[in-house]
Design goal:
Structural class: alpha+beta
Order of helices and strands: EHEHEEEHHHHHHEEHEEEEEHHH
Low-confidence stretches: none
Largest sheet: 5 strands, antiparallel
CATH topology of the largest domain: Uridine Diphospho-n-acetylenolpyruvylglucosamine Reductase, domain 3
Shape: globular
Bound molecules: iron/sulfur cluster
Mean pLDDT: 97
Strand content: 15-25%
Number of helices: 12
CATH architecture of the largest domain: 2-Layer Sandwich
Number of strands: 12
Strand order of the largest sheet: 4-5-8-6-7
Distance between the termini: 52 Å
CATH class of the largest domain: Alpha Beta
């Protein structure tokens, strides 16, 4: 590990000023991802600005009945919060599916959103990686791709975003509140993350020195919601495919109809993937396994798997169908 300066701050303005004033400075929150990167040499900052003591640890109900999570709320506290468990089960379940108990005790809301890909080549300095070293190439293209993208990738990078929480927040239409040198910005989470295109080194639209201070959730809609994660072992593993979904069924008429639906996929793209095509097909339709499969197929029509990860297309199709069936009380016996 290379030596660096360390500065602890207690005010967001000081944090922003310290990082914005030094192009080689970084924020340090829970450190669950960044400290690994320091040890591996993936990042070599001159200055670490410790924001873990910022007073951003509250979960507050908003006037509109939505919820505001401070950026320093620990993942385990968010997962266990009564309002989140009751009104946003998709978020609580996504949080509990991530990492381990110890890591969730340390990881923060803001840090979770900004964790970086676990692509094995990104973490191995002896290999080419455009995300770590722009222009060097992408070792994954001819390598190990089990955890890599099937949607929205580019010839420069096929990495996936590793956060479970971000997938749930994408389905929930959360807003990310950011404080920076030019004041506050409010970014819909659907606009926070980038696809790799020809700049895979940039994961998000945040500028250097911008600090996530909170995440805001819209008022609970009454929709049922859940999160399902498929992985290689039962815990402490990243998603091969995950699905966060909310479904609101109107059953006041002779035939139940899907009034609204939100679906986000994890483990399939450089960002949490909002399944807008599937949603459009399902809105206003009668819940059925056939409709769910048709919607999943429409979403996955644009999938471009690489050698070694074509299985994820069928896996995503099955996961979408299963989650929607669960949320609409279709019987397991009805599954294919
Ligand atoms: Fe690097 Fe992206 Fe290629 Fe992985 S997939 S080696 S992160 S450029």
């Amino acid at each position: 590990m290379k030596p660096f300066e360390y500065q602890r701050v207690s005010d967001p303005n000081d944090a922003v000023a310290a990082v914005a004033g030094n192009p080689k400075a970084k924020f340090l929150a829970g450190g669950t991802n960044l400290v690994d990167h320091l040890k591996l040499g993936i990042t070599t900052p001159e200055l670490l600005v410790d924001i873990s003591r910022l007073d951003l640890t509250e979960v507050e109900e908003l006037e509109n009945q939505g919820l505001r999570l401070g950026a320093m709320v620990r993942n385990s506290d968010a997962a266990a919060h009564p309002l989140i468990r009751r009104n946003y089960p998709v978020l609580s379940r996504a949080l509990l599916s991530g990492a381990s108990g110890q890591l969730r005790n340390a990881a923060t809301t803001g840090g979770n959103l900004l964790q970086r890909t676990r692509c094995v080549y990104f973490q191995d300095l002896s290999t080419a990686c455009n995300k770590r070293e722009p222009g060097s190439g992408c070792s994954a293209l001819d390598g190990y791709t089990r955890y890599h993208a099937i949607l929205g990738a580019s010839p420069h990078c096929i990495a996936t975003h590793p956060s479970d929480m971000a997938v749930a927040l994408t389905a929930l239409n959360a807003t990310v509140v950011v404080w920076g040198p030019d004041g506050e910005r409010r970014i819909p989470i659907s606009k926070l993350y980038r696809l790799p295109e020809d700049h895979p080194e940039r994961d998000t639209v945040l500028e250097h020195g911008e600090l996530i201070t909170a995440v805001e959730l819209p008022p609970p809609s009454g929709a049922r919601s859940t999160y399902r994660k498929i992985r290689d072992r039962a815990s402490y593993a990243f998603a091969l495919v995950s699905v966060a979904a909310l479904v609101d069924v109107d059953d006041s008429g002779p035939t139940p109809l899907i009034r609204d639906v939100a679906i986000a996929l994890g483990g399939v793209a450089h960002k949490p993937w909002r399944a807008e095509r599937a949603e459009a097909i399902l809105r206003g339709s009668e819940p059925s396994l056939e409709a769910f499969r048709r919607a999943a197929d429409a979403e996955l029509q644009g999938a471009e798997p690489v050698a070694g990860n074509a299985f994820k297309v069928q896996m995503a199709r099955g996961a979408i169908t299963t989650v929607l069936a669960e949320l609409t009380d279709l019987q397991e016996a009805d599954h294919e």
